[in-house]
Amino acid sequence: MFGDVAPRYDLLNRIMSFGRDCFWRRCLTDRLLVLNSPGRFLDLATGTGDQLVCIKNRWPDAEISGLDFSEPMLQEARNKMVRLRRKGKFQPPEPLFVCGDALEPNLPENHFDSVSISFGLRNIPRREKLYETVWRLLKPGGRFLILELHFDPRSIWAPLHKFYLQSFIPFMAAGIFGSSQNAYRYLGESIMKFPHPDRLLDDLKKAGFVDLGRHQYTFGAAMLAWGHKPQPS
Hints:
The protein is 43% helix and 21% strand. The chain is of the alpha/beta class. The chain has two domains: 2-150 and 194-228, Vaccinia Virus protein VP39 (Rossmann fold); 153-193, no CATH class.
C-alpha cells in the first residue's frame, strides 16, 4: 500500500494538511536533543525522508539515519537527497537509510541522542514493543519524540474533521491523483483510532520514559509528545 502511493505521497501530504505538515515537522525538529555534538538522530517510519530533510536543515553536521519498511518510500527519500545535493542544499555526512522493521532494527544500542517517529506510530500495532526498542537505541538521557495526527471527537470541529478524513481525502486521492482510495481510507481510520495525547503520555510513562511533555497544533489536528530515557543514578 505504501509502495503504491510513494511517488505522490509528498504532494498529497501538502494538499491534505494545507502545507501544515512542514510546520509540524519543524516543531519536532526544534525539540530534538543533542547530548554530544554534532548529534546522532534516528527517524523511524521515515517514509520519503521529509523529517530527515528538516533535521538536516536544522542540524547540518549531525549524523542522521532513517528507517522504514517500504523500499519504494526509501527510494523516494534517496532521490530527494540527491536533488538537494545537486542544488547545494545538502552537506555531508550522508544520511543512512535502512529498510527494516522498526520493532527489530539492526542498529546499535545506546547510540542516538534523539529518536523520532512522524505520522508513523499509528501504523505500528505493537506500540509497547516499539517503546522498548527506542529505549535500547537511545543514549541515557536521550529524547524520544512522537509527531502524530489527532482526531478529537469532543471538538466542535469533529463532524467536519470526520467527514474530511473518511470521505474527502479518499475521494481526492483516488479521483484527482489516481492513488489508492483504500490506502487513504485506511489513513483516516488510523487517525480516528489513535489514542488521546494523555493516553499516549501514560503509555510512555509505563514504558519508563520521564520528563514527559506534549503540545497540540492547528486546532488539535496534530500533536507532538516526548519523553526521555533516564540517566543512570
